[in-house]
Amino acid sequence: MRSRTHRTVALFLLKYLFEQKSIDGAIVAAMKEGFWEPSPRVAKNFDDVIASARTKFGISPNLMLIRDAVLEEYLDSICIVGLPYESVQTHATHKI
User: pTM score, two decimals?
Assistant: First the structure.
């Protein structure tokens, strides 16, 4: 139940942020096609977020896409989606 609650809160927050044009994109964890391995993706709209909204059991290196999102996708305001217990990624994001 707790995983579903986190996912629901994250989805509603991302939907609100996209609707208010507070963010240009979000870095989310999606599943590689044909594999059970999560991989980071840049979501440029809420439909992209919905497409990646599934429970994933594994680590996704979401921070690897910050540079690509800014320099290649030309995004100014980025939301990085992750779980609270991913403390290494959370602390690294705060230091950027």
Answer: 0.76
